[in-house]
Amino acid sequence: MLPASTDVLVIGGGNAGMCAAIAAREAGADVVLLEHANKSMRGGNSRHTRDHRVMHDEPTATMVESYSEEEFWQDLLRVTGGNTNEHLARMMIRKSRELLDWLSARGVRYQQALSGTLSLTRTNAFYLGGGKAVLNAEYLTAERLGVEIFYDSQVTAIDITDGHATSATVVNRGFTYTINARAIVVASGGFQANEQWMKEVWGDAADNFCIRGTPYNRGVVLKDLLSKGADPVGDPSQCHAVAVDARGPRYDGGIVTRLDCVCFSIVVNNLGRRFYDEGEDFWPKRYAIWGRLLAQQPDQIGYAILDSKVLHHFMPSVFPSISADSIEELARKIGIDEQALAHTVSEYNHAVVDGSFDKAVLDNCSTRSLDPPKSHWALKLDTPPYFAYPMKPGITFTYLGLKVNDEARVLFGDGSPSDNVFATGEVMAGNILGQGYCAGTGMTLGSVFGRIAGEHAACCRN
Ligand SMILES: Cc1cc2nc3c(=O)[nH]c(=O)nc-3n(C[C@H](O)[C@H](O)[C@H](O)COP(=O)(O)OP(=O)(O)OC[C@H]3O[C@@H](n4cnc5c(N)ncnc54)[C@H](O)[C@@H]3O)c2cc1C
């Protein structure tokens, strides 16, 4: 049986919701947390994560050197093209400094920074055991504090008048309940797993998307609140989308299906044509544009084509590469017109300018008079066997969300802050991420705004 009332009702049991629930309970409120998934699937997208981005003035136990507010802000400014709320973003950055201690005190453990293709040793703290371990620690802490957690509980609507909420409607194992609450924290993620909504935005192309995380983030509460006067933020077509192996599952493929080979490949569509500069910049700065690029191709599919010289320069996919001794044979194996692919490769090979290959810098291996160019790491495709990875858009999370203020209060009717509805995590990410992405920002903003939302929500009980 679900309770009839509580002080603070948290909707969604990912990292953002758990941080809010813990903070509200520590501030003295009775807290109920509702999670749509069952216990084994709890934790939303957060369980797939590896790290978060943290400002720090000096080396920490798990991060090297320093990462200042200004540098974090400039990184965010660059990737979003200015499409961000500076006040909220800077507040998030400053408060990220407290996260290592705050989360560590609540059971989260960190490991030495990994050096890999994302080279984030200075800017990001890596979780020991990944996101799943983070969630297990947060659930354990919440339970010990007395947060009441209910699984298989989908919130379908919030009863709200003029921005003041009184209760939520919940479906639990086929039964419908109403829970009265003095405050509500919405932490129910984006809407990327809502196939119908995605089709409204992307058309039939959405049928060919993989959703990298949970199938439960369907935007039900987001849509409900927007229909009841909450101010929207962000564009429905903006999202974090990467290239994933096209052989991956429709949902929950997680981190292992991501393909990190683009810089060292040429990428063609199913007509055998290149469509973007694969070597534009370092992979961490560009990986989040490739999902959108693939979404714009026929049948939303692309193929990374490599030769044996570069095979060991990137983290391999969980699926084996498709290999062949000639480009024509490779084309046959992946179902592309042989002559079209051979022509593209030959045109590319002729355009490659000799340089000295160095994957650690923006090297001088590039193409001349080729459209689109390959600006760095351009080596001839001339050393068999040749390899291909099929790629699809992998949607991580959508950016359309609820507009909030610096107390994480949801704004209603052109800017009035609600007295008792708060939001954190993906569902308000668009306040900071109008477009683009800096690796590790998702967990940072969920934790920072989760704490803030929980603390302020707890005050509503008085
Ligand atoms: C494969 C992958 C890797 C990632 N790696 C990183 C990383 O390393 N670092 C990083 O910062 N970010 C990463 N991200 C992004 C990150 O996961 C998200 O930004 C972050 O987890 C968002 O947290 P959240 O709590 O808002 O959402 P989630 O963790 O998705 O939690 C939302 C929860 O709400 C529940 N829910 C949804 N609707 C309802 C409803 N109506 N009623 C009740 N419950 C509901 C869902 O079941 C879910 O548990 C990654 C994402 C993916 C998919």
TrEMBL record:
Keyword Oxidoreductase: yes
Membrane-spanning parts: none
Keyword list, A-Z: FAD, Flavoprotein, Oxidoreductase
Keyword Oxidoreductase attributed: yes
InterPro entries listed in its UniProt record: CobZ, FAD-dep_OxRdtase_2_FAD-bd, FAD-oxidoreductase_2, FAD/NAD-bd_sf, Succ_DH/fumarate_Rdtase_cat_sf
GO molecular function, one term: oxidoreductase activity
Cofactor: FAD
Limits of the FAD-dependent oxidoreductase 2 FAD-binding domain: 7-432
EC number: 1.3.5.4
PANTHER family: FAD-DEPENDENT OXIDOREDUCTASE 2 FAD BINDING DOMAIN-CONTAINING PROTEIN, FUMARATE REDUCTASE
Protein name in the entry: Fumarate reductase flavoprotein subunit
Organism from which the protein derives: Kolteria novifilia
